[in-house]
Amino acid sequence: MQLKYSYWWFKSAISPENCQKILDCGNAKIQQELETGNSIDAITFGDSQKQDAPEGSTALNETPLSEINENQKTYVRDSKAVWLNEDWIYDLIVPFVHEANKKAGWNWQTDYHEMLQFTRYDSPGGFYGWHKDGPSDWNGVSKRYIHGVTQDPLKPNGRLPSGYVQDENMIGKIRKISMTINLNEPGSYAGGNLKFDFGMHSDKQHRFHECEEIRPQGSVIVFPSFVDHCVTPVTSGTRYSLVMWTLGDPWK
Known about the structure:
Structural class: alpha+beta
Strand content: 25-35%
Largest sheet: 7 strands, antiparallel
Shape: globular
Number of strands: 18
Mean pLDDT: 92
Number of helices: 2
Radius of gyration: 18 Å
Number of domains: 1
């Protein structure tokens, strides 16, 4: 899909006060999960995260997945995450998705927003390798999981198999638009850069793009969920972000 704008951004759109409120909310949720014995390790669709990787596995920081042998012991994510569902946060950030969808000229049909992911990347080495947030076609629609009926079994940790959901609003939908917000004060972390890969058919000089626009606190980046992106390893400090995915019907 050829796009005039591959992403849209809003510089320092969320006030420092609201960034702090989100940080307080997310960190309180992290503490709550830890006190109840729940894991806060972030997961991936393919279960390729550090906590599930065999001993001696290699972190795939910026190596394309297509270049990795299936027999290699690797993982593509090392971060912590919890889920937020506060109405006031949605009220604050959803308008930016609608505005970006219009101003970037995408004008895609959307009708639902997933729960908010509050993510923490610790140093040294917290990262998220190259990935897409969703395939964005009919093969990637979310399917209903019915206990005792769906043939694919639950995973050993009790999670649903990839591609299945129990949220009625997500069934038959795909992720179309992704949003990420930088919650950090300036200079509070190093590394942890958001990077895009616009594909082998793009201008080679501009295929890989480091998104500097996200660095000011409260900056909002909105981009198509099918765009490859990564977060490079954090070298010092702690990187905090808020992520949201906006869903709609598959393209026809």
